[in-house]
């Protein structure tokens, strides 16, 4: 495809950063755009696997302590999330229930998004559910006087993943230095490495889980070598 046709589809505004990063080389700019899409696909796959692992592990911990239908129970009057400080969590659960044609706990778990599960480590949700969710990460480091590997730490790490997940969902590039038209995969690699670390803290063999799916580092190298 000619660059002018490609640009008319993707828009000048969207392609401008790619063109600047490639020194005005239109063919290279189109290649970079396509490689960024590949990189996004790769990272989205990894994040999706992590999300499923995270929510299922949280669910197992909660079922063991709060009961087999803990999510629906927690949003009922008098439930652990039926408080002013956890109102949004309660409402998210009830909204998700309303969307299910046939209710089951497992369907409800799948209906709730990454942001919901992240908030299981927020201050009030973590406290109200019995402070059980750090058990999701049995291999996390012990806290030190300088760095506390507590629920707030996990909450903030998950926020980083939620942010890049939303960025990719809105088709924003992840192959540049932040806010600059400079090719660099460090931003994407940082988030990928965070996911690998969290898998390890969960005692999940990430290489085995992602076997045949994960080509992230290959695409990063191809972008870095453009």
What is this entry, summarized?
With 226 residues, this protein is mainly α.
Notes on the protein architecture:
With 226 residues, this protein is mostly helical. The protein has one domain (3-224). The protein is built from twelve helices and no strands. The protein is elongated and about 60 Å long. The mean pLDDT is 96.
Chain-wise SSE layout:
Layout: H1 3-10, H2 12-21, H3 26-66, H4 70-74, H5 87-99, H6 105-111, H7 114-118, H8 123-128, H9 151-169, H10 186-201, H11 206-209, H12 216-224
Helix pairs in contact: 2-3, 3-10, 3-12, 9-10
First-residue to last-residue Cα separation: 19 Å
- Global mean pLDDT: 96
Number of helices: 12
Q: Could you give a short account of the major beta sheet?
A: none
H/E element order: HHHHHHHHHHHH
Strand percentage, roughly?
under 5%
Please count the beta strands (DSSP E, at least 2 residues each). 0
Backbone CA Rg:
21 Å
Structural class: mainly alpha
Helix content: 55-70%
Count up the domains. 1
Unreliable runs: none
Shape annotation? elongated
């Amino acid at each position: 495809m000619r660059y002018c046709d490609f640009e008319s589809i993707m828009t000048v505004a969207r392609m401008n950063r790619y063109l600047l990063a490639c020194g005005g080389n239109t063919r290279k700019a189109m290649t970079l755009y396509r490689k960024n899409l590949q990189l996004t696909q790769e990272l989205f796959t990894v994040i999706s696997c992590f999300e499923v692992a995270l929510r299922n592990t949280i669910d197992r911990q909660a079922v063991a302590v709060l009961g087999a239908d803990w999510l629906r129970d927690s949003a009922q009057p008098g439930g652990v999330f039926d408080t002013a400080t956890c109102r949004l969590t309660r409402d998210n659960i009830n909204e998700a229930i309303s969307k299910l044609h046939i209710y089951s706990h497992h369907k409800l778990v799948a209906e709730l998004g990454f942001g919901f599960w992240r908030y299981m480590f927020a201050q009030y949700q973590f406290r109200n559910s019995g402070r059980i969710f750090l058990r999701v990460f049995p291999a996390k480091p012990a806290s030190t006087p300088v760095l506390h590997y507590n629920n707030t730490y996990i909450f903030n790490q998950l926020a980083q993943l939620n942010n890049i997940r939303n960025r990719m969902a809105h088709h924003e590039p992840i192959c540049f230095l932040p806010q600059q038209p400079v090719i660099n995969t460090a931003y994407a690699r940082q988030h990928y490495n965070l996911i690998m670390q969290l898998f390890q803290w969960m005692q999940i063999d990430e290489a085995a889980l992602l076997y045949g799916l994960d080509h992230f580092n290959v695409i990063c190298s191809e972008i870095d070598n453009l």
